[in-house]
Amino acid sequence: MKTTYLDNNATTKVAPEVIKEMLPYFDEFYGNPSSIHSFGGYVGKKLSEARQEVASLIGAETDEVIFTSCGTESDNTAILSALAVNTTPGKQHIVTSSVEHLAIKGLCERLAGKGYRITFLDVDGDGNLDMDQYEKSLTDDTAVVSLMWANNETGVIFPVEQAARLAHERDIIFHTDAVQAVGKIPINMKNNTINMLSISGHKLHAPKGIGVLYVRRGTRFSSLMTGGHQERGLRSGTENTASIIGLGKACELAVENIEKENTYVRQLRDRLEYEIQKRIPGLRINGGKALRLPNTSNISFQFVEGESILLLMDQLNICASSGSACTSGSSDPSHVLRAMGIPYNLAAGSIRFSLSIYNTDEEMDFVIEKLPPIIERLRKISPSWKTSSMRANA
Ligand code: PLP
What we know:
The protein has helices spanning 16-22, 24-27, 38-58, 71-85, 102-113, 131-137, 160-169, 241-279, 306-314, 335-339, 344-347, 361-380, 383-387, 390-393; strands at residues 4-5, 65-68, 93-97, 117-121, 142-146, 173-177, 196-200, 211-215, 283-286, 296-301, 318-319, 321-322, 324-327, 330-333, 350-354. The protein has 394 residues and is an alpha/beta fold. Helix 1 runs antiparallel to helix 8, helix 8 (241-279) packs across helix 12 (361-380) and helix 9 (306-314) crosses helix 12 (361-380). The chain is globular and about 70 Å long. The mean pLDDT is 95. Bound molecules: pyridoxal-5'-phosphate. The site of pyridoxal-5'-phosphate has 14 residues, from helix 4.
């Protein structure tokens, strides 16, 4: 059975053009880019070209692009660097949001245990940031702000450029986790004051295990790794050459495809949502009223378990993800949906569909046909659905 892959916020297919670009760098051009000989030098030249492609996608300068191993490393490095370069004693406050990815949330919680004060900003029912609360949260003690550009679960976009301006006025370092935004919406670092930005290759049709940390010229920076002089000493460790070259190609393709993301992919997503809403009662589109990524749809179905929906969809080879994280046998609704104040009986039945340019109208038709009977079947065995008033109206 054909796979219907609608889990692109988890990871994406590596573009065939990217694979083709990478392959020679495993067996033919395997030199070390730091070597003096021209065999290695050739690879070094290709890395420079890849750096240029990454810079072009986000309107950066090439010396602002640092290759890392993943989005998580970029996120961790950004926060830890901002804290390390801070020379004012007592500046131990970090501002972030309550809906960040664990790469930021987990690190901040750990730092809280080491004496840092963390403000986790609230979001409203649509996932929007409370900008008044944000402004009030910035104090003389604030060392760094980290706010995601787009949320991985709902696709909701935060006004990070505006938030960075407010931080900049107070001389606070501003970082954004743009892992889900880069390649899906236009980003131009020439138009903002953001100090640092994280990218992950595998979210934009490059391989897993390659990331970027953008660091604006003039931003004080402290490296996480100590070792060789790679990345101008800012990130030691022999470069993942094939993956960097693949990421360069993926960024080149992203420049070409960003229009398609915002027209074709958006139209697929909107039709999927519209048709599901028409066919299934008792649901909520999470973040549906907010400014959102064009590819993401997070839907809560009342009185069913997200995991059960996923299992039944999996039998049809439909890949999506649930809004809940399964921990030790009990499934808790995700921290993102909880922060949005979504009632438990809705949040527990949440599914994220995340699309890419490789999806088709036929795939949407397949899901539109198969999902309603799945929800109906699960609701028939749901005790809370049996007693709900909605059953009579369905
Ligand atoms: N930040 C966000 C918003 C993400 O969605 C992810 C991955 O899901 C990450 C960070 C981590 O990226 P990586 O998997 O490259 O470590």
